[in-house]
Amino acid sequence: MNISAFDLAQRFVGVKETPGATSTPLVLAMLQLDGAWPTNDAVPWCSGFTNFVAWLLRLPRSKSLAARSWLEVGRAIPLEEARSENDVVILKRDGGGHVGFFAGLDAETVQILGGNQADAVNVRSFRRADVLGVRRLA
Prior knowledge:
The protein is of the alpha+beta class. The chain has one domain: endopeptidase fold (from Nostoc punctiforme) (Alpha-Beta Complex). It has helices at residues 5-10, 25-31, 46-56; strands at residues 75-77, 87-93, 96-105, 109-114, 122-127, 131-136. It has a 6-stranded antiparallel beta sheet. A hairpin with a 2-residue loop joins strand 2 (87-93) and strand 3. The longest helix has 11 residues, at 46-56. The radius of gyration is 14 Å and the shape is globular. The chain starts with a helix and ends with a strand.
């Protein structure tokens, strides 16, 4: 059986940060996959989530907590060719970027299954105009 990154990422829907001084152990594990920092889950963790899912499936990954680091991973594809399988979408955002797995597309928005979306793993819509790139991991 072949499982896609999108399929596996769906299993984590509902995982969220713990408010306050305590951290969610799973989110902290995602953040510390490639280093000992950060020490809590009150930091941007979208790339940590994407790296974690890719790591579990032995797919190419950025090994960085910077969302824009995904612009160098896999193969670039047009947004219109993206599929809900192993494709990641990288967005521009104030102060940096955002990354997650492609979940859908309409005329105005792209839907992304990702981490740190309102402090949780879920599907949210983002403006197509904010897309920096789409990368196919496999």
